[in-house]
Amino acid sequence: MEQKKIIIDTDPGHDDAIAILLALASPELDVLGVTCVAGNVPLHHTARNALLICELANRPDVKVFAGCDRPMVRKLVTAEAIHGETGLDGPKWEQPKIELQEQHAVDWLIETLMEADDGEITLCPVGPLTNISMALVREPQIATKVDQIVSMGGGYFVGGNVTPAAEFNIYVDPHAADVVYRSGIPIVAMPLDVTHKALMTEEWIQSLQDLGTEVGTKSSQLLSFYNRFDLERYGMAGSPVHDPATIAYLINPDLYTGKDVYVEIETRSSLTMGMTVVDYWGARRKDPNCLWVSAVDDTGFFELMYERLSTL
Asked: Which terminal CB of the chain, N or C, has fewer other CB atoms within 10 Å?
């Protein structure tokens, strides 16, 4: 089996943690490294959390890099109300035994991509796009080395989740998202439009606990903590688990359907800052820069996550 080389850029975060576990449990994917960014919680927490998750997966070989500790232009906005003070509240965690790499994430991204063949590596950002955009600004030639960017972020049909117009990952650093969407790199967007169509049930979360493994137990504890916020806020039957959609797409893109569209990022308006402006009907007459995913086989998605997490 030829593995797809990927880099996960992340701000763990409960759903980020499940995305990392899903990737590390999938033989189709070769995780070259994990780069961390400030987002759900400040950088010192997100970097520690990425180490904890790699350790939980028994993958101390995976290199973890700390990156940008603030957005390109704006002040950092975080989400402790959802993820707790540490970003991974719920389970009891010890201090990680594995350590961060000394190199800055942006330096490592540039170095790794410049050494790659054209189109060799897929970037999988599941947090604010600061690290990716800073790498592109510093070394634009890396764009040709990227096969595609499969990213969790944005919303069109369902609006935003941090403001009426903006989804959290884009809102935290809209200027970074603007750089990425104008980079010419093919983008697959997993927006709220699709993640809100795959809702966790308490029974599914319990099924992870019933695995009787440390990964199953901690995953269940993570998702139980995470589930409470959306249930209270939206009153839905279950909570969406956003970030693993990116990894599931890489494993089995047939689970998803979408449309090629042109997307721009709002960076000026105080009312709609961070909005993903999706030209769904081609009014701008511009060539598409993004596959905007809007439908999912939710049963297949949860079966895939359960099957892979059960192997760890």
From this structure: N
Neighbours of 214 (CB within 10 A): 13
The CATH number of the structural domain formed by 4-309 is 3.90.245.10
Question: Domain residue spans in the chain?
Answer: 4-309
Q: Which residues are catalytic?
A: 242
Kindly report, residue by residue over 60-115, the tens digit of the pLDDT.
Answer: 999 999 999 999 999 999 999 999 999 999 999 999 999 999 999 999 999 999 99
